[in-house]
Amino acid sequence: MPIIITRDDPRYASLQKGHNARFPEKETDAAKRIFLCESSADAADALQQIVSAGLRPTIRSGGHCYEDFVANNPSGAILDLSLLSGVNDGRSAPPYRIGPGVQLWNGYLELYKRYGVTLPGGTCGTVAAGGHISGGGYGLLSRLHGLSSDWLTAVEILTVDGSGKVIPRRVNAHHDADLFRACRGAGGGSLGVITSYEFNKLPHPPAEVIEAYISFPWEGMTEEKFVSLLKTFGEYWETRGQEPDAWGMFAVLVVSHQSGGGHMGMSVQFCNPDGTCRDLAALNDYLDCFLQCGSPASPADGTGHAGLSARKDAGESLCSGVHTVRRRNWLDATGGNNGSGSSARAKYKSAYMKRGFTEVEARCIYKHMTRTIPNVDLRGSVIEMDSYGGAINRKELLETTSVAQRSSVLKLQFMSFWGNPEDDAGRLQWIRDIYKDLYSGPDSDPDHKETPWWSPRYEGCYINYPDRDMLSYTYWPQLYYGHGKLYPFLQTVKRKYDPNNIFHHAMSIRP
Q1: The CATH number fitting domain 208-469, selected from 3.40.50.300, 3.65.10.10, 3.40.462.20, 1.10.10.60
Q2: From CA 413, how far away is CA 254, in angstroms rounded?
Q3: C-alpha span between 256 and 83 (Å, rounded)
Q4: Which of 36, 317, 429, 511 could bridge across to 294 with cysteines, CB 3.0–4.6 Å?
Q5: Where is the signal peptide (predicted)?
């Protein structure tokens, strides 16, 4: 039987909240009760109780939903799957089964120790598999091995038929294939309750990786230097970075607001496609691109040391050097990158880019990252710029998954974190301003200004980084699912398997 947490339970105050401390926005928005499930049978029992009682179910695996899709559920019920945290449930061989409550780091650890394989997922260790995989799921190995959902071969899911009866299903490419495809990237909370993910095969992780961290101090960072940095970063991933020998490299440029003090930073993880670090030519090619940044350091070599392959006469320095460079085994490196941060009030936005940054885009970003707003503390406001593409961009997967973005070379995540509710208005103003301004430039579509509408430059938004602000645009579903046949297909699946729209939130698939 599921464990039922009500408002008078001392655990309720903690369990009603997710990772984003903004939600529930007020006490009356909170769910009436929380069902903690320890098995798929518990989940089916809980879901039937919820539906039969006429309550709205919202689904939680790890609680990292960026918006209010779970925690804000007035008089409803949260179906909490965090205790469905088994990996393979005692099986000694494939298929590999992962529960929706498996936190990524625990999943990586178990898959590696037991079977020597991994999932090409994210770096936030406490994010759970449930929401991560259903929305695509990407991370440091995705340029080499694709998205987590690309490897998915079956799903166990609970749906609700027209009479209100809970139906357990095991779906794959041969049984309920339409629902299976929808579970491979369309996002969570729209179609049913996934209780298990199944993979017939998973990739082997690298034997070793080389990690580098490069610091770019704000002190002395002129607008021209900033533009040079962003264009250098983007141009590499648009061109050389898409060649197969560079697919084992993933870089993250974190541009923090100037008020945060200190510096911006870029982290790089590299391995050859065969999982070794024997040939560092591609890594040095990348680091050489930053010669114009002028950091005097030595090239990467095979001894466990690496750095910018730059000459001392390279000109005025943009970066203060490679602060951390080391050769590590993959498991240690993954463990060192598995932090998710503490709960805070937050707002997020996203964009896919099919090209590097233009000068206009770079200057716009500089303007807002150095902007001040009276009485608003903008520390904790950042744009994370991830390298993308490689194996992710295999076009044949457009027909078998529900991820439409298969042509991008960069993926942007706009974020702002703060502690006090009194700062909400100022923080939300800043992140909305930069986003609208950036996507209203000369390269924006005149009919879709303020958004990264699909074009030769942009490829919409990421459903796992949902943003309620997009609801103000009638075409918001196309931003996340493309302007082709994918969203109409998902609507057909929705009507077929959730005819009463039991599973819904602000950005769920519309019937």
Answers
A1: 3.40.462.20
A2: 10
A3: 36
A4: 317
A5: none
